[in-house]
Design brief:
Blueprint lengths: L9 E9 L6 H9 L6 E2 L12 E2 L6 H6 L4 H4 L4 H17 L11 E6 L17 H5 L3 H10 L5 E4 L5 H14 L5 E9 L3 H9 L28 E10 H6 L6 E10 L12 H14 L8 E3 L6 H15 L8 E2 L2 H4 L6 H15 L1 E2 L22 E2 L4 E8 L3 E8 L3
Parallel strand pairs: 4-5, 4-6, 9-10, 9-13
Antiparallel strand pairs: 1-7, 1-8, 2-3, 6-7, 8-14, 11-12, 13-14
Helix pairs in contact: 4-6, 7-13, 10-11
Length: 410
């Protein structure tokens, strides 16, 4: 569903990230602009029998931090992934200074992108009594809604690595169409477990550069050998301009629009020559009411896989023409890995911070560029750059594509 243009502006009045680079938005932003990698040897379980033995895990302090943010009884009913999402959302709400007791809770909702709750072989303390609650796909949105007694839309959407970007689009529509005033959107994910790593290894999708973990995720490089798994959560608070002004909210940026589409081509591979990606980005521009000339930065899907990096580069050239090489394009996954269902929201939040700070985060490890991929990928170091409009891309197995357009709020 895409809204028709109207005078309702959808603003971002809160955001937070939990990733391998930190447990809040400020820690993450500091490490991102310094070009640090969160990829290390796997600690969650013994990975010695796997081809891939590295991942971008959360800091070891996460469990202790989460225990101070979640009631003990409730925590027993949550997986580690659900805890990531709940804590990330709670901190985002507190930073945004929303007092839901002063608002119409029937017009406040939660929409999250969820692939799974992570109730896998590495999950601790799952019993017969709590296994169903831990496994429910809707648990993340339900717990957040329960925390604040929100009675508006409350559901999850699953579209693989584009899930939380889809959630942003659905939240945008709810506000744009006058069905909600505030929607908490985002997602959380972790596939750092033996079964899913072994599965992706069979698909030759993961990097096996175990000796130098920090160097393994290298989008757009000639010697890239697959993506690196990351984990974490990203939350953004979408709010109508009227609601934000009424409560005197701090505004980080405006969500100008989005595009979603299905390639209907292949369960794994993107459409040849990036045609499906081209269609999605053009749709996002059209629905945002802007032209290709307006985009100042692109946060790429940038997985470090052969086909994605190639076809995303081709698509950017087709959409932006001669100007493509002038637009900074970077991949956050070079530092935090691929956070799967959470990637769209995490990378959208990073893009918002880029707009706020007029700073482009780098693509690290780009030491041996692929000669066919010749855009400005902001190698190694962050860069100051005026950003009025930016795009964040998410493309998933199954042909699920999403492009989010974000705008500096004036």
């Amino acid at each position: 569903m895409i809204s028709q243009p109207n005078d309702i502006k959808v603003l971002i009045t809160g955001l937070n990230i939990i990733s391998s680079l930190g447990l809040n938005i400020n820690e993450n932003w500091t490490n991102l602009i310094q070009g640090r990698s969160g990829v290390k040897p796997i600690r969650l379980f013994d990975s010695s029998t796997l081809q891939t033995r590295i991942a971008a895990q959360l800091p070891e302090s996460f469990e202790e931090y989460a225990s101070g943010r979640i009631k003990k009884h409730t925590a027993k009913q949550m997986t580690r992934v659900t805890k990531m999402c709940f804590v990330c959302a709670k901190d985002a709400v507190e930073e945004s200074k929303i007092d839901f007791e002063l608002l119409d809770k029937s017009r406040c909702g939660v929409i999250l992108g969820v692939v799974s709750t992570g109730n896998t072989s590495v999950e601790n303390d799952t019993t017969v009594k709590n296994t169903i609650i831990k496994s429910m796909n809707n648990a993340m949105s339900a717990w957040i809604s329960l925390e604040y007694k929100l009675m508006g839309p409350n559901f999850t959407v699953a579209s693989a690595c584009a899930s939380s970007a889809y959630a942003m689009g659905l939240g945008y529509d709810m506000i744009k169409n006058g069905m909600a005033d505030i929607v908490i959107v985002g997602g959380a994910d972790s596939i750092i477990n033996p079964e899913e790593i072994a599965g992706f290894n069979e698909l030759y999708a993961l990097s096996v550069e175990n000796e130098y973990p920090e160097k393994a995720s290298k989008p757009f490089s000639n010697d890239r050998d697959g993506f690196v798994i990351g984990e974490g959560a990203g939350i953004l608070i979408l709010e109508s301009e009227k609601s934000a002004k009424t409560r005197g909210a701090k505004v980080f940026a405006e969500m100008a629009g989005y595009g979603i589409s299905s390639e209907a081509y292949n369960i794994m591979a993107p459409m040849q020559d990036g045609e499906g990606i081209v269609h999605t980005m053009k749709l996002a521009l059209r629905n945002s009411g802007i032209s290709p000339e307006d985009i100042d930065y692109i946060n790429a899907h940038g997985t470090s896989t052969i086909l994605n990096d190639k076809y995303e580069t081709m698509a950017i050239k087709k959409v932006f023409g001669q100007r493509a090489k002038e637009i900074p394009v970077s991949s956050s996954k070079s530092m935090i890995g691929h956070t799967i269902g959470a990637a769209g929201a995490i990378e959208a939040a990073i893009t918002v911070m880029s707009i706020v700070n007029n700073t482009v985060t780098p693509t690290i490890n780009l030491e041996n560029p692929d000669p066919e991929l010749d855009l400005d990928f902001v190698p190694k170091c962050s860069r100051k750059h005026q950003i009025n409009y930016a795009m964040s891309n998410s493309f998933a197995f199954g042909g699920h594509n999403a492009s989010i357009v974000l705008k500096k709020y004036k």
